């Protein structure tokens, strides 16, 4: 595959954070005043409601306000951070590594976004592969020849979907690709316009939950040799499962893979601003109602693949 990060490189990059976290310089608050721009994801995923959780917490505990914007998520968000159009964003940890190092997806190759900085990792982002309840699709290999929604064009979801399909032997030309947000993708499943959709997010994902309740779904496993190959080909994937009864009609756990969601910023945001926002969120994790079982101070640097912003380093020590 073309994704050239191996396990040793990933572990080295993550370990180097501790040595280089304080090396960045702090810039001025690029937000202009006390309003900070925060780029999330589609309204049907986890990024958007979680970002609005953070908005409430930050505004209740600091002098700053967050302007939360719905976006195409990870790949779009790293571009916004690099251009300093956003002060903070939620992204996947694999996309963070790709962006900073100028590797991975074609859109990021050869153009390292060296100003992007990490704040904290949050929770596992679980790969959901959704079909209609009676589709008869049971494995990733069954998607050969199918019409598949791989997520918004340029999103982390699309990156992950294409990685998994390629590992399973399904390459460009072997399927018909469509690209929309999660809400539209689940509508397409309901209407029979597509055979399957990839949705990436912390379970339960709202759009998937709604579809499971209104029309029924089936979840395609990523398991066995396929899962081992996926994790060998792309080392940022980890084993995961969607618990039984997470979604209506899914009575058994579904094996799959996941990455980590994380908060990122850029080196033009003032150290004091990042420290204030980080402190507000992680001193008030009990006020979070999205993925709260995963978001803790102790786990907030697990899987961090890029250098920390000095403001985050000041909080986490």
UniProtKB/TrEMBL annotation:
- One Pfam family here: NMT1_3
**Coiled-coil ranges per the record?**
none
State the name under which the record lists this protein.
Answer: TRAP transporter solute receptor, TAXI family
